[in-house]
């Protein structure tokens, strides 16, 4: 019984010595919590050795995506002799360092001074001791959270805040975040919502259902697509852009509002006006009373073409009418009887389109207004 007690006392004493030796060494990362960060700065570490003796140790560093926990970068230093007291270390003090880049996303751009990509990270440091027999054992682990952010976030350009836009299919553009070297997989998401009375733009973005949302854009601009329902004249809207770098970074712009000018600016199509079809996209809105009259430039010399008319509802496009039309080279003035056919609804938005033999799309958008008898 006495022997068992002695063994218990010895084990307790040994555990206490191990605990004391572990707590006698402290690791404090010297990393800014946010901003720009380079790989070499990950090794800015303050180590305090209160054991009173020189300790042979290694440092293992791991960089992980904070949201998913996926490890993106691992680094292991050489074995160093850690002296008593406080020691400030840099990357060169641990060289050579063995790195392992893991995961499907590169967190470090090795072509631009080893700058870390924009993202939210967890950085962990493990201190490993080496005894006289060469046996390694982890002594402690210290983790910090870091937000690597660009110097300049994305910024909206147009439509300007509180501006009035003359077209129901506006052109959106914005300034990318900078510096560009911080992004290896930069994509954008744009959201457009209606602004209701009494709401601020931020309330509208947070509470109202999106009228239009487009993800995975690779360019800092977008033309509101003709396949979506036209933004209504007289109404106010809010738009916002979210910049993303893979799954590691996400930052929103401000929320800006704009209004669509009243329909009085739209061109009325009548017997005396032939509106021009535009290649690719026509930024103007038209009102068609009765029959359709338009001008088409036959650049490809087609002898005939098919004129297709679609309804525009949200992101859906449904065929309503088709007509075969004879053409001549150059300008063609085409008349189409659409009134009193029963195919067109009063105040409905439509898309008229011609596709030539080069697969180019020429079109215009119009709202049909039933002619009074």
List the helices and strands and how they pair.
Elements: H1 2-23, E1 25-29, E2 34-35, E3 45-49, E4 55-65, E5 71-76, E6 80-82, E7 85-89, H2 91-94, E8 98-101, E9 108-109, E10 115-116, E11 119-130, E12 136-148, E13 155-158, E14 163-165, E15 171-175, E16 186-194, H3 201-207, E17 210-217, E18 221-223, E19 236-245, E20 249-252, E21 256-260, E22 267-269, E23 275-276, E24 278-279, E25 285-289, E26 292-298, E27 304-313, E28 316-326, E29 330-336, E30 349-355, E31 361-369
Parallel strand pairs: 2-12, 14-21, 22-25, 23-26, 25-31
Antiparallel strand pairs: 1-3, 3-7, 4-5, 4-6, 4-11, 5-8, 9-10, 11-12, 13-15, 15-18, 16-17, 16-19, 19-20, 19-21, 24-31, 26-29, 27-28, 27-30, 30-31
CATH superfamily of the largest domain: Immunoglobulins
Number of helices: 3
Q: Care to count the β-strands?
A: 31
| Oligomeric state of the chains in view | single chain
Distance between the termini: 115 Å
Indicate the low-confidence ranges by residue numbers.
6-22
> Mind telling me which CATH architecture of the largest domain this is?
Sandwich
Total individual domains: 3
Beta-strand content? over 45%
Calculate the mean pLDDT score and round it.
Answer: 83
Radius of gyration: 33 Å
Secondary structure category: mainly beta
Describe the protein's architecture and organization:
The protein has 373 residues and is mainly beta. The chain folds into three domains: 24-148, Immunoglobulin-like; 155-260, Immunoglobulin-like, CATH 2.60.40.10; 266-369, Immunoglobulin-like (Sandwich). Helices cover 9% and strands 49% of the residues. The chain contains three helices and 31 strands. It has helices spanning 2-23, 91-94, 201-207, and strands spanning 25-29, 34-35, 45-49, 55-65, 71-76, 80-82, 85-89, 98-101, 108-109, 115-116, 119-130, 136-148, 155-158, 163-165, 171-175, 186-194, 210-217, 221-223, 236-245, 249-252, 256-260, 267-269, 275-276, 278-279, 285-289, 292-298, 304-313, 316-326, 330-336, 349-355, 361-369. Strands 2, 4, 5, 6, 8, 11 and 12 form a seven-stranded mixed sheet that branches. Strands 22, 24, 25, 27, 28, 30 and 31 form a seven-stranded mixed sheet that branches. Strands 14, 16, 17, 19, 20 and 21 form a six-stranded mixed sheet that branches. The model is unreliable at 6-22 (pLDDT under 50).
